[in-house]
Amino acid sequence: MTDSHHDSSITRAEKAAHKRVRALGVDLSSMDAVANIFRAANSIRNKAERDLLTRHGLSFTGFTVLWVLWVWGPRESHQLAEESAVSKSTLTGVIKTLHGLKLVEREGHPTDGRRLVIRPTDRAVQLMEDLFPKYNQLEKEVTSGLTKKDKSDLIKKLRAVLHTLEGQ
After folding, report:
1. Whole-angstrom distance, CA of residue 35 vs CA of residue 165
2. What domains, with CATH codes, occur in the chain?
3. Edge-to-edge strand order for the sheet containing 75-76?
């Protein structure tokens, strides 16, 4: 359990949450772990959009979709949604935006006309080759308070959380 009386890194919001829910008998350390994963992910996402992505007309989700296409190449829309961790309906809007920016092409599947294949354009590939090193600088910046060992430990712990979720 996180001890809000002895942990100097705990936030005011966490202290207030502890005070509010402690009597319910909930697992405070699990609550804190998930809350901090969520807060860190949202803060990184917001910083990336504010400092880097919006000037290219991209949301973080749009960047993620482009990253998947850049790394893996053309994908069927259902695969792309899954690999980008978005719903198919969210992907539809993102693809419409990326298509408008001339970053993706939509094509019918070669053997099943009901399916759709999304392909990155040359413009998207060039953008990602320019943008990803800048995004990695942001990644370095937000993890600069961690040692190499801290990062390795964090990666292992986050993967354990993901494996638990993916096993459900």
Report:
1. 16
2. 1-48 (no CATH), 57-143 (1.10.10.10)
3. 75-76, 116-120, 104-108
pLDDT in tens, 56-86: 999 999 999 999 999 999 999 999 999 999 9
Report the greatest alpha carbon distance in the chain. Answer: 63
Across the strands, what pairs with 107? Answer: 117
The 10s digit of each residue's pLDDT in 5-54 is 556 677 888 888 888 898 898 999 999 999 999 999 999 999 999 999 99
Question: Hey, how many other C-beta atoms are within 10 angstroms of the C-beta on 152?
Answer: 11
Calpha distance 19→7 (Å, rounded): 15
Q: How confident is the model at residue 1 (pLDDT cuts 50, 70, 90)?
A: very low
Q: For the residues of 79-148, what is the DSSP string, one character each? A: HHHHHHT--HHHHHHHHHHHHHTTSEEEEE-SS-TTSEEEEE-HHHHHHHHHHHHHHHHHHHHHTTTS-H
